[in-house]
Design brief:
Distance between the termini: 26 Å
Shape: globular
Bound molecules: flavin mononucleotide
Strand order of the largest sheet: 8-7-9-15-10
CATH class: Alpha Beta
Structural class: alpha+beta
Helix content: 25-40%
CATH superfamily: Chorismate synthase AroC
Number of helices: 11
Length: 387
């Protein structure tokens, strides 16, 4: 198992979100601005609700980093919820709850009902506050931190939106540097400007109808050495680890690696990436249908993960539900909500994937300090060259 692990805590409208990361080697340069940049990217995207206008997330590091370098000790991170001051009477850790403001009508598609029954709460706010994707703020902060370690080894992450509702990109993906520049400037985080216009028009239309939208996105990781993950046991397979981590993002309903479901339609001769060798490059593939992973291990190609996110569950024209106290039919509760979060989900997934890659990277190369890690890495790369 990897030495890298973290834990998060915090409610959507509580005072703050917290994370503790353990297992980072010492001596890694960390820029606070790079973490804040990823937090800002997470908050963007056409189709977000009012909440993201209230919050302007900034990380506060309270331990584990000194003068911009990791110490090797646990790193504690916090992000304040600016909205907390408006929610204090409803979200106080102590005192008495207000019976009038309790949430009793679970929203279809949300954690409300199953969570209420499981944890024996009739005020469903006790569930929705933690089920909310506000929690992903800390997962992005952690991803943003560990990708600064990955960058030392030239491992980079990219993402873009492939579709929103039934509108898809129509042109092939450009080279990665261009892709990131286009996607980061696009309000819907995509590279195809004609598709982007259609996506935004669709979001406007759906907003008017008080409905919501989902879509698909892709995360790409470059610079990954051969042999991260392993075929030897189910829990070491990197494709499986990536599927779990991306699926754990709220509202994700499908994760694909490489060609994904398309692989099931192809003949073997049109699917598998043939193997070549040259003195300069070593072993290589000319195609990447496998998405950089074979036998649960990186094969030297970029990792490609695609995911599908369902439409947002809170509808301003609420669906039918049942009051959990009176058991009478009622329309579902309305919580202030986004309409479409596919662009944000792509950015979050990018950072979630960064963490999973950092875990397997540290598992393979290990070391208490960056110096030690670099030595293990370069020895391993030397061995691979002589294979
Ligand atoms: C970035 C992001 C923002 C989200 N914002 C909302 C929201 O504003 N309203 C809502 O009802 N669901 C929102 N969701 C989705 C819910 O959090 C999610 O559907 C719910 O927790 C149930 O989990 P499940 O869909 O994974 O089963 C968001 C998801 C993501 C990834």
């Amino acid at each position: 198992m990897s030495s890298l692990h973290y834990h998060t805590a915090g409610e959507s409208h509580g005072p703050m979100l917290t994370a503790i990361l353990e297992g980072m080697p010492s001596g890694v340069s960390i820029a606070e601005a790079s973490i804040n940049e990823q937090l800002k990217r997470r908050q963007g995207g056409y189709g977000r609700g009012q909440r993201m206008q209230i919050e302007s997330d900034h990380v506060k590091v309270t331990s584990g980093i000194r003068f911009g370098k990791t110490l090797g000790s646990p790193i504690a991170l916090q992000v304040e919820n600016k909205d907390w001051k408006n929610w204090m009477p409803l979200m106080s850790p102590f005192g008495r709850p207000s019976a009038q403001r309790a949430v009793h009508c679970p929203r279809p598609g949300h954690a409300d009902l199953a969570g209420g029954i499981k944890y024996d709460h009739h005020d469903l706010r006790n569930i929705l506050e933690r089920a909310s994707a506000r929690e992903t703020t800390m997962r992005v902060a952690i991803g943003a931190l560990v990708r600064q370690l990955l960058e030392v080894f030239d491992i980079r992450l990219y993402s873009y939106v492939r579709s929103i509702g039934d509108v898809s990109v129509l042109t092939p993906c450009p080279p990665l540097k261009k892709l990131q520049a286009f996607a980061n400037q696009s309000p819907v985080h995509t590279y195809d400007s004609r598709a982007a216009k259609k996506m935004m028009a669709l979001i406007d239309q759906v907003r008017k109808k008080q409905d919501s939208l989902g879509g698909t996105f892709e995360v790409i990781v470059t610079g990954v050495p051969i042999g991260l993950g392993s075929h030897v046991n189910w829990e070491k397979k990197l494709d499986a680890l990536l599927a779990q981590s991306v699926m754990s993002l709220q509202a994700i309903k499908a994760v694909e690696i490489g060609l994904g479901v398309e692989a099931g339609r192809r003949w073997g001769s049109k699917m598998h990436d043939e193997i070549f060798f040259s003195r300069a490059r070593g072993f290589y593939h000319k195609t990447n249908n496998a998405g950089g992973l074979t036998g649960g291990m990186t094969n030297g190609n970029p990792i490609v993960v695609r995911a599908t996110i369902k439409p947002i569950s809170t509808l301003y024209q609420p669906l039918r539900s049942v009051d959990v106290v009176t058991k009478r039919p009622q329309r579902a509760t309305i919580e202030r909500s986004d309409i479409c979060v596919v662009p944000a989900a792509a950015v979050i997934a990018e950072n979630i994937v960064a963490y999973t890659i950092a875990q397997v990277f540290l598992e393979k190369f290990g070391g208490d300090s960056l110096r030690e890690l670099k030595r293990h890495y370069s020895e391993s790369m030397k061995l691979q060259r002589y294979y």
